[in-house]
Amino acid sequence: MILKKLNGEQFKELLTNGALNLKANFEEVDSLNVFPVPDGDTGTNMLRTISGGVSALNGFDAKDLGEVGKVVSKGMLMSARGNSGVILSQIFRGICKGFEGKKEVDAVQLAAAFKIGVKQAYGAVVTPVEGTILTVFREATEVATKKVTKESTINEFFEEHLKQAAKSLKKTKEILPVLKEANVIDSGGAGYVYIVKGMVKFLDGEKIEAELVKEEKSSEPAAEIDFGAFTRDDTLQFGYCTEFILRLQSAKVDVDNFSVDQIISDLNEDDIQGDSIVALKDDDVVKVHVHTKEPGIVLHKMRKYGEFLTIKCENMALQHNENMSEEERESQAHREHKKYAIVAVAQGQGIIEQFKALGVDVVVSGNQTMNPSTEDFIKAFKSLDAENIIVFPNNKNIIMAAKQAAQLYKGAKIKVIQSTSIPQCYSALTMLDYSSDDLTIICGSFLEAIRNVVTGEITVANRSTRLNGVSVQKNDHIGILDGKLVKSTKFKNRVVVDLLAKVPGMEDKQVLTIIYGKDTTEEEKAKNMANIKQKYPYLEVGAIDGGQAVYKYLLAIE
Predict the structure, then answer these.
(1) Which of 8, 12, 38, 279 has the fewest CB atoms lying closer than 10 Å?
(2) Judgement on whether residues 447 and 502 belong to the same structural domain of the protein
(3) pLDDT at residue number 226
C-alpha cells in the first residue's frame, strides 16, 4: 500500500506489525549481550514496552492520529522496562508529541515528529552514549528527514529510515569499544531496527499474523464480588481506590497552562486526606489515582476543572482479599503511616528475606533477566503509606524505569539510590539509620556505603568470547568486579579466591559477605570457603543463601 498521509488507524497497524516483527526476533536481540552470561534481556524489555503501547489501543478505534498517539505514548510509558525499553518509550513519546493536534501527517510532518522523538530520547538520558539505540534512531531520522519532500510518500520515509538504521546498527560495533571486543552489535539498536522492519513490511503488504505478549493491565473481566470481604460489622479501614480520567474544560480552567499540582493539592486537603496519589496530564486529559475514604468529595472537587470521561471506585477491602496472599493481607491490614519507607528490587527468596529483615518495606521482583516496568514501581509506591520512599534498583538496567516512576508518582517524595547490584544494596541497608530524620543524611549514608563496597559476581559463561583482555571459554567460571570482567577459570572451587585476588587493595579489606545462588552446590560452597579462610584468614566472612538465578556467587567486599 502506498500512503501519502498517515492517520491514526494506519499508525496503529504500523506499530502492531513492528511489535510483532520484534516478537519474532526478540530472542536474537536478547542474545546480543556483551557479557557471556545468560542475562541478556534487551529484546524482552523492548517487546514488553512496545506491546504496552499496542495493548493500550485495544478497543480504541479513533482514526485521529493525535488521539491515537496519546494512548500509545501512555501505554509505552507505563510498560517501559530496562534502559532500552525506557529509551524506546521516550522515542515514541516524542514522536507522538509531534502528532498532537493532527488527524493525519504527510512525510515531511512525519519526519518532523521523528526529530522531536530524537530530542525527547536524548533528553531522557542523563549521559547519552553513542553507539546505542540513540545513535541508530538519530542517524536514521536525520538521513530520512533530509531526503523527504512534500511529494514523498510515507513509504519512502520509512524505507530511507530503515536503510540508514541498518547501516548505523552495523557501525555501533566500531563506535563502542566494548561491542567491538565482544564482537556484537548494540542490542537496543537491533531491537529498534526489527520494529522498523515490521513497519516497512506492513507498508509492503505483509501483515504479520500473530499475537503480542499480554500486558498485565488491560481489560480483564470483572472478578466476582466477595461479599464476605466487607460485612455489616466492618469499619472502612482501607478506603476506596478511586481512579478517573478528567477532560479539562476551557470554560473552567486555562487548559494549556493548567498544572496537576492544583489537583494534588486538593487531594491532600484535610477533608480528603488522599494517599498513593498519581496525577498525569496529557494535553487536556488528566488521569488520576488516589486512595481516600471520601471519594464523593474528590469527585465533587474535580468537576471545578472539567468533566469525567471514566470513573472507577472500589472498596480496597475487596481488592486486598482478591489480589493478595494471606501474608500480604495481614501486612496491609496493619499498614502504618511511615515518614520513610524503602523499596528494593531483588530476586531469590533468601535475598528477599534478608532485605526485609534489614528494613526494606516492599520488594519489587526483578533481576538480570526480569526487569520491572515503570508501572511495577508505581504499584509498589501505591502499596505504601509513606511521606518519603527510598528506592534501590540494584541493576544498572533498572535505574531508568525507577527514575521514570519516581517522576510520575506524586503520592510521596521519591529518592532513587543508583545502586547497581545486590551487594551494594545489602551493604547500604546495614547502615540504615533514620535517627537524623533528614532524607539527605539518610541517603548520604547509603551512598557512602555503596562507595565503600566492591561487588563481585561469579557465574558460568554461556559462550566463548574475549572481553576486557580476558579470554573466556564456554562453561568457564567467570568473575566480574564492579561490572568489569576480570577472571575466567575452569577451577570452580578456587573461583572466589581467584576473584578476590583481583580486588584492588584487597589487603585492606576486612569484611566479605557471600550470597550463594540457587545452583551453587554444598561441595562448592565448602571448598571455596576453605580456600578463602586459608588465603585471607583476617577476613570476617559471612554467608547468605540468596537463592538467586544466574549468579552462583554474589560478593560484598568491604
Answers:
(1) 38
(2) no
(3) 59
Shared domain for 470 and 511, answered yes or no, is yes
Considering the domain architecture, whether residues 349 and 409 belong to the same structural domain is answered as yes
The enclosing domain of 543 has a CATH number of 3.30.1180
Distances in Å between the Cα of 402 and the Cα atoms of 209, 341, 409, 551 are 34, 15, 11, 23
Same domain, 172 and 95: yes
Is 77:374 a contact under the CB 8 Å cutoff? yes
Secondary structure element (H or E) that encloses residue 297, with its range = helix 295-302
- Entry pTM: 0.74
C-alpha cell at 117: 522523538
Task: Give the rounded distance of the alpha carbon of 209 from its chain centre.
Answer: 28
pLDDT along the chain (558 residues), means of 10: 95 96 93 72 92 90 90 92 92 96 97 97 89 97 97 97 97 91 91 97 92 50 55 76 89 92 88 77 80 90 93 72 45 69 94 93 83 92 93 94 92 95 95 94 96 94 86 91 92 90 93 92 91 93 91 94
Strand partners, 556: 455, 513
Query: Residue 230 to residues 234, 342, 392: CA-CA distances in angstroms?
Result: 6, 30, 36
Same domain, 410 and 425: yes
Distances (CA, A) of 296 to 126, 302, 469: 42, 10, 65
Q: Which 3-state string (H, E, C) describes 116-132? A: HHHHHHHHCCCCCCCCC
Give the structural domain span for 347. Answer: 336-451
Q: How far apart are CA 83 and CA 415, in angstroms?
A: 19
How far, in Å, CA of 94 to CA of 104, rounded?
16
In this prediction, residue 175 carries a pLDDT of 94
CA angle 545, 546, 552 (to 5 degrees): 95
- Rounded CA-CA distance 226/320 in Å is 11
C-alpha cell at 324: 493478595
Going by DSSP bridges, is the β-strand pair 275-282/285-292 parallel, antiparallel, or unpaired?
antiparallel
Identify how many contiguous H helices and E strands the chain contains and give both numbers: 20, 18
Task: Say if 221 falls within a structural domain.
Answer: no
CA–CA separation, 188 and 157 (whole Å): 21
- Give the whole-angstrom CA distance, residue 155 versus residue 142: 16
Tell me the β-bridge partners of 41.
none
Note the pLDDT of residue 443. Answer: 96
Q: What is the reported pLDDT for 219?
A: 35
- Predicted pLDDT at 329: 45
Residue that is last in its domain, among 451, 477, 510: 451
What is the tally of structural domains in the chain?
4
Query: Is there a domain that residue 476 lies in?
Result: yes
545, part of any domain = yes
Q: Which residues have C-beta within 8 Å of that of residue 293, sequence separation ≥ 6? A: 236, 239, 240, 273
